[in-house]
Write a structure and sequence with these properties.
This protein is mainly α. It is 75% helix and 1% strand.
Length: 297
Amino acid sequence: MPFTERDGWIENYRTMHDEERPDERKAKTERRGMGAVGGILVALGLAAAKFKTLLAVLFSFKWLFLAPKLLLSFGSMFLSVWLYAQWFGGWKIGIVFVLMILVHELGHFVTWRNYGVNASLPMFIPGFGAFVSAPAGGTPAQNVAAALAGPLFGVAAAAACWVYGIVAGEPSMMPQARFWTGCAYIGFFLNLFNLIPTPPFDGGAVAGAVDARLWIVGVVLLGGWVLLFGHSVFGIVILLLMLVTAVPRIIGIFRGHIDPHGSGLLPVQRAVTLVAYLAIVFVAIAGAAATHMERAA
């Protein structure tokens, strides 16, 4: 059927402007809709996969065993912060005390893990420090290295606080404003105390590896400290621990039941251990003395 001039003009307009016909527009709209639905389905599938992975992690047996350990470790740490804050009159000092102990224990933890020993996370005993337990199985050299690592990390952390305080200009401040110097003193003193050469301290483990007769020196030092400065529950408990752990071993040495050189270390290893131990002790004494004088000046 012939079309009119107006119809021909409309057809020419559609051809020139590439105008889509209604059926073509409908098909395109449907394709867009299908694409959007497909994108949503893909996104939901990815989310479901991630959620499934998350559920698998949350409900895995390993996580179920690890969660109570983490809860106990961090719970004991927060309880220690609260206790030290009550004892020493402030949250700042409580947090510093616990962090210094934590760094010390992480020295043991990292060293044991580096040797492939499945050491536990640091566990705090509020008011009495913390500990890292490790199953027996390390070599004598690894045992003494792990014992030295705790004080080494702790003294290094104290030294870092001291240096930061100097850079921050604390020597020119009033003594009560020297916060980082105070942190350094706490770190040096705690690790120096822990280096007393008698069980149950790290110094006792090191002394036993070098020559178990050094425990006698540690018992005298610790007993003197308790008599002069340890008139508290803490001092009494430390004294009892010494009597239970150190004194029977010293008696065993005198009776010949314990070989003072029976740690398994070679003579060269004992010499290196002794030098390392004395070096850490020297740095801890010097640091504690210097930071104490700065705080008192």
